Amino acid sequence: MPWLILIVVIGLLVYSATRQPDISIDVDNCRLRVRLHGWDCVLSMRRTIEVPVTQVRGVAVEPIDDVPPPGIRLPGAAIPGLLIAGSYGVGDQRSFWDVRRAKTVLLIELDPDCGYCRLVLQVPDPHAEALRLRPALGTWMPEA
């Protein structure tokens, strides 16, 4: 019976790694709210991330290779090359990731005081999402 549970868990991880993350991002009442749905809640061990707009530095679209590496996973799930979901790093380098095999991601830079220094999210169209969010959150210009 334990082998059946292991097969089911591996199957769910593989299924989750092959599909787009289910994320909704809203800005209302001066708060940025990122909601995770379905298996993304299980994999990242989070349902919602809320941050005051005043603690958001800005939004950018970046190639995944240009985003600083996530660091130590605390808590979350990862399959190298396929899936990164959850909280990573410690202290003022803590970041939240929900990415499958995306080449380009939505990057939301935050003041480290709010618990995370950045949110790295895979959305269907990161450029359109950034254009939608920039009037409320501003534009982030990564250091070269």
Give the key terms.
144 residues, alpha+beta, six-stranded mixed β-sheet, 3 helices, 9 strands, globular
Q: In short, what is this structure?
A:
By secondary structure, the chain is of the alpha+beta class. The protein has helices spanning 2-17, 39-44, 126-137; strands at residues 23-28, 31-36, 48-52, 56-63, 73-79, 83-88, 95-99, 104-110, 118-121. The chain contains three helices and nine strands.
Structure characterization notes:
There is one protein chain. With 144 residues, the chain is an alpha+beta fold. It has a single domain (2-137), classed as PH-domain like. The chain is 24% helix and 38% strand. It contains three helices and nine strands, in the order αββαβββββββα. The strands form two sheets. The protein has a six-stranded mixed sheet with strand order 4-8-9-7-6-5. A hairpin with a 6-residue loop joins β6 (83-88) and β7. The chain is globular.
Mean pLDDT over all positions:
88
Q: Secondary-structure element sequence?
A: HEEHEEEEEEEH
**β-strand amount:** 35-45%
The CATH class, by name, is Mainly Beta
Q: Tell me the distance between the termini.
A: 53 Å
CATH topology: PH-domain like
User: What is the rounded Rg?
Assistant: 15 Å
CATH architecture: Roll
Q: What is the percent of helical residues? A: 10-25%
- Strand count, sense and closure of the main sheet? 6 strands, mixed
List the domain count as a whole number. 1
Helices, by number, come to 3
For the biggest β-sheet, the strand order reads: 4-8-9-7-6-5
Low-confidence stretches: none
Q: How many strand elements?
A: 9
Structural class: alpha+beta
Global shape: globular
